[in-house]
## 1
Amino acid sequence: MARTLTFKIFRYNPTKDNDEPHIETYELEETPRLNIFTALHRIREKQASDLMYDFVCRAGICGSCAMMINGRPTLACRTLTADLTDTIELYPLPFFKLLGDLSVDTGVWFHDMAKRVESWIHTQKEFDPTAVEERMDNDTANKIYESERCIECGCCVAACATAQVYPDFLGAAGLNRIGRFMFDPRDQRGEQEWFELVSTDVGVFGCIGMMACDDVCPKDLPLLEVFSYIRRKMNSGVQVAVKDLELS
Amino acid sequence: MKVITTDVLVIGAGLAGERAAIASAQAGHDVTILSLVPPRRSHSAAAQGGMQASLGNAVKGKGDNPTVHWLDTVKGSDWGADQEVARIFADNAPIAMREMAHFGVPWNRVEGGPREVYIKGKKTTIVEDDEKEGLITARDFGGTAKWRTCYTADGTGHTVLYAMDNLAVQLDITIHDRMEALSLIHENGVCLGAIVRSLRDGEIMAYMAKTTVIATGGYGRLYGESTNAIINEGTGSWLALQTGKVPLGNMEAVQFHPTGIVPTDILVTEGCRGDGGLLLDVDEYRFMPEYEPEKQELASRDVVSRRMKEHILKGKGVQSSYGEHLWLDLRHLGEEHLTTKLREVYDICMYFIGVNPIKELIPVRPTQHYSMGGIRVNKDGQAYGMKGLFALGEVACWDMHGFNRLGGNSLAETVVAGMVVGNKIAEYTESAELIANVTLAEKFGKEQTDLIEHLLNNSGDEDVYALRDDIAELLKDHVHIFRTGEGLEKAVTGLKAILGRVKNVKVNANAPGMNPELSQALRIEGMAKQAYIIAKGALLRTESRGAHTREDYPARDDKNWLNRTLASWEVGADEPKFNYEPVGPLDLPPGDRGYGGGQMVDMDLTLEEYNAKVDAEQTALGKQASSEPMGIRLPKEAWREESPYKDAK
């Protein structure tokens, strides 16, 4: 028999005078293969026309719709109600700026992160439109792609203990981005530059290793592997720097 | 009202918009990008399969060149494309792929030596050239003579968009996300910017610029059931249409992709079939070779979708509570392939429909996917009928796709047009003047605040979501893969009635801020008018060409319909105006596509006679003079050097 689902949804509109954060309850008949994307649209279109949330691709690709579903950060579009209890609690992701109800400003945070880690290929080479592309080993391309698959949903940061304490912490998404460019032979940043970027409290040494990020990442990024790569590279970088010091 | 000035205003932060913005920023202009969503959430990110470019590195791409790519594109378009624009595209696609590699895209590369692949249902060993080791590789896609589609697994749009946005961040380009342009500010046929609503707090602002660029993607969501992101509601084409000056081209040319999954309508890439996936019917019988012996599952999308529908109508569909569908079989490709090169597809099937494609068949049916039509522009990307306004990417009708686009050609178009049109935008801006006419901006701003006031406070009782669903229902029922005069009449009558109901839309949510119901209500007139233009244009076009299939007019009619539909809607008028222009200079004479079958009515003009009238007739309908003369980029009869024409000589 079809269930009647109870949605307890966090509501707060910061642009509305005297509004206070509160929980509102909505009931919805469950239909086959119902996901949170469809459920929220049904609630908005019939019961709560001012309900705010974010969806774009609704296919688990764009990273817009991360929220806390029964206490866990995940993508709403691909969460089926069949996998959840009769009562479903929806909260916005913590850590990010709240725009209203379930909508948070992940876009601005990730833009800022991209700036901080200089998320681009650092090279002196100019593009030559007449030349054949530079060769790359396919295994290297695949390795870069593994980290490049991050969709900036923010689940990892929302689940991160360090990020809740140090708002400047780059988070798993930031460290993963650094790893992505470290793997990339086109990026000519040297040991020293990487060292300055990651060897701080807001970088890789801020991580206390609880790895909730790895648990919640909806794209199953190899975060553990990336972090240990960065740490190893930094340790060898330190040794190189110390050796240089002794010689001089 | 806050007024923000910039040199170049780009509306839309997907691949086309960002690449164009980068061209202007590199030329030293001040650029501001507006986007409904953070740039990396744009629908470009969802493109899976790849981008066509004739690099010819993969062994099955050997001998490829821009002429072969151009030939495939023109045939794919069913001769509806502007052949010169298709040539500009094919010539620049290899440069754009290499440039994206330079910007950081981790393209999959050639691995020399033997490997096993599936071609036309058979396991085959091919040997990749050792000399090409490490160069950008390619996979097979539909309607192409060569393996030409460059890719990063099945996350191509994602990696290219991330590389592009990384560059935008590096260049420190101003991006204002969660902003929706509601109307263009214009006077005397010159665009001066746009009126914009913040989706954060609802504020109405004016952005004034020397050059305004629209790159907002397609109008697929008008159909409701669509593979498109939910933001693809035709907002950009509506900006142009509502000026009354700028025509939309070929709006009835709508693509249905063979493999939307059932239910949810999420796309699984054409790369599935390119990599060897098969289409099966209710008896798990592989039916495509019967219809298309040569191309089989890899005919063009219009043809495969038509054949699938045809087969379902013969009673060979699979019944389900979500309607009839067919199967996509990827099982033979094996676990490794499905969890690496087709990993997004694997995830989508597992998460959304609980199907494991390693062991199970995927339920699929043709689903609305792409808008060939859009803002009509000249080969430089300048809008017809208005100076200072450019459009590119899916929102534009540039028009390299004609009546059917090939898979892998749209994602490639975004970066190629971004480069080519982007440079034209930068050049135009060089000599353009910033006219910060605040009085005019206030006037256009007031129109929008009055409209919002009306939507919130009128005494009507129309629900915006019900109206949106009614539009989708009419398009789905009557303006789909197969169309008839009778059905299209119903759609036109129904949509006319909906247009009458638009002014009675009442927004119930009166909370300040984002107000999602108000956002939908602000889009609804544009959605209704564009749906009307699609249906009416399809009714008027009494032939079948590409994705536009009239059961009552099955022949492609080159005598009467080798032209492009232009629809404009004067301010205050009850009906849009339809005009027709030549498709562009012809070099490849209209002929058989080599797949799809069908009848043809031959044109009664020589190519010279046809070409002699193109420029004047297009100019009479609003085309602006391009920076170079028409036809100069179309090398005469280069195609005669290529197969099958070479063998035929």
## 2
Amino acid sequence: MFTLYDVPVRSRLLLGTARYPSPMILTEAVQASGTEVVTVSLRREAAGERAGQAFWSLVRELGVRVLPNTAGCHTVKEAVTTAHMAREVFGTRWVKLEVIGEEDTLQPDVFGLVEAARILCAEEFEVFPYTTEDLTVAERLLAAGCRVLMPWGSPIGSGHGLNNLFGLKALRARFAQVPLIIDAGIGVPSHAAQALELGFDAVLINTAVSQAADPARMAGAFAQAVAAGREAFLAGPIEPRDMAVPSSPVVGTALLS
Amino acid sequence: MHATIIGAGVAGLACAVELAERGASVEVLERAESFERAGCSWFAGGMLAPWCERVSSPAHIVALGDEGFAWWAERYPAMVRRGTLVLAHARDTAELKQFARRTERYQWLDAAGITALEPDLEGRFEQGLFFPEEAYIDPRAALAALAERLTGLGATIRFGAETPPAHAESGRCVIDCTGLGARAVLTDLRGVKGEMLHVQAPDVTLTRTIRVLHPRTPVYIVPRGEGRYMIGATMIESDQASRVSARAMLELLGAAYALHPAFAEAEIVEIGTGVRPAFPDNLPRLTRRNGTLYVNGLFRHGFLAAPALARRAAEFVLEGREAPEVMQ
């Protein structure tokens, strides 16, 4: 159990709702994942006219908490406007804040991110910023009022897993008390397990599940990996060593030849 | 048997043709004044691409779509069966591999193979997938051909017609093919908006459907003859059948331009948008409700799946034969 803005959450797997073959398969994946939090992106043209109601009510009916996101926003103003719409549509103060800085890697614009976080926190949003592993940016986001951070593993949808282990470990060590959710880049369940083994609080997965040949089955696989990774973290993994360490005692071994 | 078909989109006309060909006396009622306003069929791509669609649909769609080739070839001889060419830019090669893993009945092409099929694409792509059995039709011409066939069979099509809530009288069957119009009855229907455009591109010659894969904005380009191409289509969870966003046009035109720079010289001749009716599983189905048969949820598979659904609808209405795979 961990908490996100004072809300206790049991499942450490968060799921995105974009790009599933159908809403029905999305529903099956959510059920198989055991997730309690799903992210939803708003297309602004759909939000304006309330024309996306059918899909959104479907998401609401999943019976899980909705974390609206500002996916695809490139400027502070766009992100803030989208957050306002999301609050209205989903009736939640939660918002996953994305301000995209670079078209090829979809890497966050951390300057715009901090600025947008400041604005939204002042308006009493509970902000989940999609950020890099940069320690200084993390400091600034926390100073802006964020109480959760979502560092990337690798670029969105790339499936490369945890790209900068050194940086991510440093982030975990530096902010031991802040819920850290690995967002973006997870490709297969072993990546997710690794994140949890390192002590990250949770992972957010979208593409790796929605674009799998069998999304529901993949969601179930991720649920197991996340549970295993968390258990391993709690169980205390061994330190890697440079030399072999025999697991059975050498002294006193019978000589059979 | 007297049959009233409500809705003159591709589902309605295909059902009407199937029934009329089997000797039923058919009338089609359409609320709109013309095909142009009669729903999303007018804006469709017209791709008969069941094997490509397998990438995001169950095998079931392939089986339904496979029935469509012969049906269309007979009723719309202008159908072009030259296959589908699926391409991705070098940086998106992973998309191509994933597409290949999920689909079937294709062959891998190298640069020379692509050039052999479409000389205008010479030097632009290193690899692609070719689905030789797929085809395309011009949806507007195909709707007209079906209408003409219906007239020939003695059926009537009434535009601007009153279409009261469908109800069956004795000796008369009613088939409702009104897409989102049937939402009051089929409450789990939703709309998936699509935006498209037509360009006149005299400097580009492409002779078959081209799909360009992209992680965010996959696009297809379908020849419409005489230098005209349809570029489509967005997929947005929305019921709004109006308003085309600048973003959509940027994405579609950007993808066309990346396919071939000569698309920059093209003239934009039409921009359109429609809303596809879809059930939660994005699969089409026949639903019986109060004596009316609803043929709905054709989503992005209207021209692909309409013949198979129409055949099953006719068999059910005339012979009582059930089709469990598409019936509810």
